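Annotated sample (chain length 86).
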Amino acid sequence: MMNDFNETMTFRRGGDKKSVAATIKEVCRALEEKGYNPVDQLTGYLLSGDPTYITSFKEARTQLRRYERYELIEEMVKNYLNTMVN
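Output written by the structure step:
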C-alpha cells in the first residue's frame, strides 16, 4: 500500500481510554489520599495548564493529561448542570 503524502494521516487511539468522569474521580481520590484539596488542585491545573498541580501519585497526572483541559471542563459542567436540573 502506497502512502499519498498529500493527504492528512489520521491516528486513532484504541478503546483503552477511560471515561472522563471516571478519570476525574480517580484523580480526586489520589489528591485526597496525598492530603490535597481536589477542588483547589484541579482549578489550578485547569486555569494554568500546569500539570504540577496534580500529584503523580497513582499516575493521577498521567491519567488526567490524556484529556485536553476543555474536555475536563466540559465533563464537569455537564455533571454540574445535570445535578442542578435533575
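Annotation: The mean pLDDT is 88.
Annotation: Residues 69-85 form the longest helix (17 residues).
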